[in-house]
Automatic annotation (TrEMBL):
Family annotation (PROSITE patterns): HTH_LYSR
Protein name per Swiss-Prot or TrEMBL: LysR family transcriptional regulator
UniProt superkingdom: Bacteria
PANTHER family: HCA OPERON TRANSCRIPTIONAL ACTIVATOR HCAR, TRANSCRIPTIONAL DUAL REGULATOR HCAR-RELATED
Pfam families found in the cross-reference section: HTH_1 (PF00126), LysR_substrate (PF03466)
Species this chain originates from: Actinospica durhamensis
Transmembrane feature ranges: none
Length: 295
């Protein structure tokens, strides 16, 4: 007798009504009837007496109910115990970030995570954008909240947590510094400071080689950190795209952040190694999602 057939038999023995049993188990009344007939054929005796008015157990059916019920409860308890063990999150989870606004979200999510999983320690680690996936690949991190895209064969990209409007960082002496907004086309009149050691797909998405009309964009020096980029920008050595929110965290008297009116947002998501998938990672990702959505 299959487990589903046992479940149908026990439910009918409790309800003594084919329609209610079918509704309880989310199956059709015909499925209930077929299962009972199959069991009766296998046993060689009727399990239920069916009339137009009611359904009742036969003596054989009563015995089967009593003997199956205890075993079925044990099966349910075993399954529930296995599920609880799978949900148990323990050990250490290490999460990295680069941008301070990502750090704010990670810290808040860590508080939520600790409440849900007190047996698991959280370690928060800042890392450089220029070494995007190095700490993941060396197992220093379990997951990280990072700027997208992340098109790596050994990296899993989880859900996008939030999107930030883009701004162009420039010196206060730059010709565009007094504009209310800038356009992607304005790159053609600028020298763009790049980010060191990022893959081509990331550079092309955030630091294009041409404007939408096809004008070449001049690329200048590469910066290994945000602070190095800001030093170059403050000295009017070039511009670099960032986010509008960055002005709240990285304000300097020699730099302005001018919003784009036509650039795509900067999206942030969770990443982890393909072979590093774990319950801990999904549990922390859920905490990040809940905090980001205000739950």
């Amino acid at each position: 007798m299959e487990l589903r057939d046992i479940e149908i038999f026990l439910a009918l023995a409790e309800e003594l009504h084919f329609g209610r049993t079918a509704e309880l188990l989310h199956v059709s009344p015909a499925r209930v009837s077929q299962a009972i007939k199959k069991q009766e054929r296998a046993i060689g005796a009727e399990l239920f007496v069916r009339t137009s008015r009611n359904v009742r157990l036969t003596p054989v059916g009563e015995r089967l109910r009593d003997e199956l019920a205890a075993g079925y409860r044990q099966i349910q308890e075993a399954i529930a115990g296995a599920a609880a063990a799978a949900r148990c999150v323990s050990g250490v989870v290490r999460i990295g970030f680069a941008s301070p606004w990502c750090g704010d979200l990670v810290v808040k999510a860590a508080d939520v995570f600790r409440q849900r999983h007190p047996a698991c320690e959280v370690q928060i680690i800042e890392r450089l954008l220029a070494d995007r996936f190095g700490p993941l690949r060396t197992r220093e991190l379990d997951l990280q909240l990072t700027e997208l895209p992340a098109e790596e064969p050994d990296i899993v990209v989880g859900p996008i947590l939030f999107r930030e409007p883009r701004a162009l960082m420039m010196s206060v002496d730059h010709p565009l510094a007094r504009n209310q907004t800038v356009s992607i086309e304005d790159y053609g009149d600028c020298v763009v400071i790049g980010v060191a050691s990022v893959p081509d797909y990331f550079r092309d998405f955030h630091l294009p080689l041409r404007t939408p009309s096809g004008r070449p964009i001049t690329h200048g020096r590469l910066a290994a950190s945000f602070q190095e980029a800001q030093s170059l920008i403050g000295a009017d050595k070039g511009v670099q795209p960032s986010t509008v929110r960055a002005a709240l965290y990285h304000a300097r008297p020699d730099i302005v952040f001018v919003p784009f009116r036509d650039a795509p947002t900067v999206d942030y998501g969770v990443t982890w190694l393909t072979d590093g998938d774990s319950v801990k990672i999904h549990a922390f990702t859920q905490a990040l999602l809940d905090v980001a959505s205000g739950k």
